[in-house]
């Protein structure tokens, strides 16, 4: 069997599997569910995928993965996205914390933590942002003090997605307050149910409570929960952020381009179909060209990761362009819809509702690095332009 034949067969089997479960886990099953109910559905769906060889498709079988290829993963993800399954709710778990465990944890830790995550039994979060640090990861102030074989955590994190549902989280903590800003941090993972951990949901503009503030009050964790060397946490966190930028931008959580084309065909501008207006056609063409370019960047990045190389700064391009394009598409759609476009439905999904996608747009443009930070990364690490003024890199 040729590679093309194999992939065609794989796609047919995957689609048949997805069609079988769409009614129980797809769009209709998610209608009017609360966030907690959606998370529970997502975990059950992940378990179904794991039992059928479609969870963590490229990961090793010894850790619960399917041992497949990147092309198989892309094929399955493309087909899965068409049915509205709640896979995005576990995107952080499987996109950042658990891959970091696969790369940096001990063999015993990998066996303990990776398979339950693959089966959807345990959920992870990423605790990087802090109230006084904004997008400046190196300004983290949460303290970790050595106490024998353990560490004691004190401080606060914020904007932590789905923390209220998570079992474990990864974080960076300041372990040497006298070291230069970028060199006194260490990378840990923590039990979110441990004594001293308090999670408080934050209600966003669209009334959803996806993110939280998390408080650590003398939380004790063993040194075995440290990933990487002491005071090497900034480098580890940057590797995680490179992964995050792919996850944040590749989640494909806005209405698809075809929905915008259908809307432009259905709506009228000055008595004619909006699709015939030159400005509308130009916007749609721009969106199409952007999406094709992003697909090429994404596939190239996946090949790099598959080859065992670290993700590069191109993730910043992908995240920046994808977030801007999604917001632009939602804005154009609302313009075409007129007054009816601003009708608010608290149960609407960003994947199917332009109003919800537009409201959620600014969140996506902050998560994983603001537009301004990404522009700096692109300018300095890809274009080789002189570094921006960085007073924060001066010795403390």
3D structure, described in words:
It is a single chain. With 396 residues, this protein is of the alpha+beta class. It folds into three domains: 3-87, no CATH class; 124-231, Butyryl-CoA Dehydrogenase, subunit A, domain 2 (Beta Barrel), CATH 2.40.110.10; 253-382, Up-down Bundle (Butyryl-CoA Dehydrogenase, subunit A, domain 3). It is 47% helix and 15% strand. Strands 1-4-5-8 form a four-stranded mixed β-sheet. Helix 10 (278-306) runs antiparallel to helix 11 (314-337). The protein is globular. The chain starts with a helix and ends in a 14-residue tail after the last helix. It is an enzyme of class 1 (oxidoreductase). This is Acyl-CoA dehydrogenase. InterPro entries: Acyl-CoA_Oxase/DH_mid-dom, Acyl-CoA_Oxase/DH_mid-dom_sf, AcylCo_DH-like_C, AcylCo_DH/oxidase_C, AcylCoA_DH/ox_N, AcylCoA_DH/ox_N_sf, AcylCoA_DH/oxidase_NM_dom_sf, Mycobact_Acyl-CoA_DH. Pfam families: Acyl-CoA_dh_1, Acyl-CoA_dh_M, Acyl-CoA_dh_N.
Return the CATH architecture of the largest domain.
Answer: Up-down Bundle
Helical/strand content category? alpha+beta
Portion of residues in helices? Answer: 40-55%
Mean pLDDT value:
87
Kindly provide the radius of gyration, computed on alpha-carbon positions and rounded to a whole number of angstroms.
22 Å
**Principal-axes shape call:** globular
CATH topology of the largest domain: Butyryl-CoA Dehydrogenase, subunit A, domain 3
CATH homologous superfamily identity of the largest domain: Butyryl-CoA Dehydrogenase, subunit A, domain 3
**DSSP summary, beta strand count:** 10
Distance between the termini: 62 Å
**Number of helical segments?**
13
In what order do the strands lie side by side in the largest sheet?
1-4-5-8
User: What portion of the residues fall into strands of 2 or more residues?
Assistant: 5-15%
Spans with pLDDT under 50 lasting ≥5 residues? Answer: none
Specify the CATH class of the largest domain.
Mainly Alpha
């Amino acid at each position: 069997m040729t590679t093309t034949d194999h992939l065609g067969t794989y796609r047919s089997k995957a689609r048949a599997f997805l069609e079988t479960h769409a009614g129980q886990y797809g769009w209709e099953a998610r209608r009017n569910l609360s966030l907690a109910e959606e998370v529970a559905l997502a975990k059950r769906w992940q378990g179904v995928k794991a039992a059928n060889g479609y969870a963590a498709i490229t990961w090793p079988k010894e850790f619960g993965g399917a041992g497949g290829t990147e092309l198989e993963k892309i094929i399955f993800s493309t087909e899965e996205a068409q049915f509205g399954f709640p896979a995005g709710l576990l995107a952080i778990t499987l996109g950042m914390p658990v891959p970091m465990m696969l790369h940096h944890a001990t063999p015993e830790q990998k066996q303990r933590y990776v398979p339950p995550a693959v089966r959807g039994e345990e959920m992870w979060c990423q605790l990087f942002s802090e109230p006084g640090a904004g997008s400046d990861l190196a300004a983290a102030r949460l303290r970790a003090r050595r106490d024998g074989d353990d560490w004691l955590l004190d401080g606060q994190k914020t904007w932590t997605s789905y923390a209220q549902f998570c079992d474990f989280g990864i974080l960076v903590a300041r372990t040497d307050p006298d070291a230069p800003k970028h060199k006194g941090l260490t990378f840990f993972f923590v039990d979110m149910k441990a004594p001293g951990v308090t999670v408080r949901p934050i209600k966003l503009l669209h009334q959803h409570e996806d993110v939280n503030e998390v408080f650590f009050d003398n939380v004790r964790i063993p040194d075995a929960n440290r990933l990487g060397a002491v005071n090497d946490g900034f480098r580890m966190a940057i590797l995680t952020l490179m992964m995050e930028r792919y996850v944040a931008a590749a989640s494909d959580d806005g209405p698809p381009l075809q929905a915008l084309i259908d809307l432009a065909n259905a709506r009228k501008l000055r008595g004619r179909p909006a699709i015939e207006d030159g400005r509308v056609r130009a916007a749609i063409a721009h969106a199409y060209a952007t999406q094709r370019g992003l697909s090429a960047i994404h596939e190239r990045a996946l090949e790099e990761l598959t080859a065992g190389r670290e993700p590069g700064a191109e993730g910043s391009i992908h995240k920046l362009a994808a977030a801007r394009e999604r917001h632009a598409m939602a804005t154009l759609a609302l313009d075409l819809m007129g007054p009816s476009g601003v009708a608010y439905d608290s149960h609407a999904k960003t994947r199917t509702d332009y109003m919800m996608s537009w409201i959620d747009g600014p969140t996506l443009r902050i998560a994983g690095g603001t537009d301004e930070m990404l522009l700096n990364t692109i300018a300095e690490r890809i274009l080789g332009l002189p570094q921006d003024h960085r007073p924060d890199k001066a010795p403390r």
